[in-house]
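Hey, quick one: can you model this chain's 3D structure?
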Amino acid sequence: MNTLELLCAGKLAGTQRLKLACGLAEFPREIFDLADTLEILDLSGNALSTLPDDLPRLHKLRILFCSDNQFTALPAVLGQCAQLAMVGFKANQIRTVSGAALPLALRWLILTDNQIEELPADIGRCAQLQKLMLAGNRLPALPPAMAACTRLELLRISANQLTVLPAWLLTLPKLSWLAYAGNPFCENTGVTAFSAPPLASIHWDHLTLQHQLGEGASGVIHQAQWRRRAGVQQVAVKLFKGEVTSDGLPQSEMRACISAGAHAHLIPVLGTVPDHPAGVRGMVMPLIDPAFRNLAGPPSLDSCTRDIYATDTTFELATVMRMALAIASAARHLHAQGLMHGDLYAHNILHAGHGRALLGDFGAASFLAPQDRQQTLALQRLEVRAFACVLEELLERCCAGADARPTMAALVKLKTACLQELTSARPLFSEVEQVLTKLVRSHQELPSEAATAS
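Sure thing. Here's the predicted structure for all 454 residues.
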């Protein structure tokens, strides 16, 4: 029996999580039989256009996914669901969002890839809001009332119709991860004025895809063989999934990767694929040493904005400092190139012990406006807070003896400075890099310096 049949037969009593993707055109009333236990409901991939008026009967419902359906408006009934904290309506046909549709407990709202032209001022009442995904809509502006969303940490507004990046946005005390590429103001203000160096065009018929190496929001990465005159080279090929991702546009990511330039802690781009038979965009990169692995996993439904580490993860102090220095150096380089990474997270960092680290995934990258120095500095300091979150996570998992207390105290002081709610008081990455460089050198001079790191 499939899940719907089990539900209708009353065999899912006590279920806390339910997923139904079977072409539903109407909300199955049998779901209400789970009202006393159901917390997570996933109805993505159906043909739904409405939800029942008595949805609040699911009084324990915390998370609702209705992506890839046929909604034209965010259902107003959602606002009556007292426990609802995460709402996902990606890739529908939503044009209108009423204030009544926003639950007061909302922490995470996903409205990517719709047709929304306006957000209600009532969004300012969502005091718990931490994560807001709006890429791929038609928004010409953000409501000033959003300035009251002081817990907002991650915002995706790429690929909309924004004519300006609001100044109040850059004063939000906790905003750390921002993507805004693909808006009219990016073109009108010269945000994309940094010219990318020319790259090779690598023809599809010169590539032989092998096994999959990984998958992210914007695309799938495969190991591949690249046949060239000098011989066969093992490479990594990233094929983008579609026209709009949760972070923004594939072409924006490609432009950012190319413009990032060379740095010891970034993954270079060898070329682009201009002639995929299905019209898919692609990039070719060097194959990374398999010793490198993701520093952490992406946030969970419960953690919302913070990455998930394996429970037994620990790091030597030397590793923490070197890794932090590597990422700060890479971020400083990107800012100097006129780029903001937009997704500076541990799950986008590869590490291979001894503090070796690479910062990847430019899906949320955006160009800075060189002529607007005040805005540029504010954006750079916004990303410094993202770095501080990673540093905080590393320090929480750091093994250090009593003799390392002064160094640990210095790292905590740096983290605290980078987390300041007054954005203008945070240091820039050039200052962060200088502090970490001095700490690494001082630590290396200690007789007790450990020769190995996790």
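One thing worth noting: Confidence is low (pLDDT under 50) at residues 189-195, 448-454.
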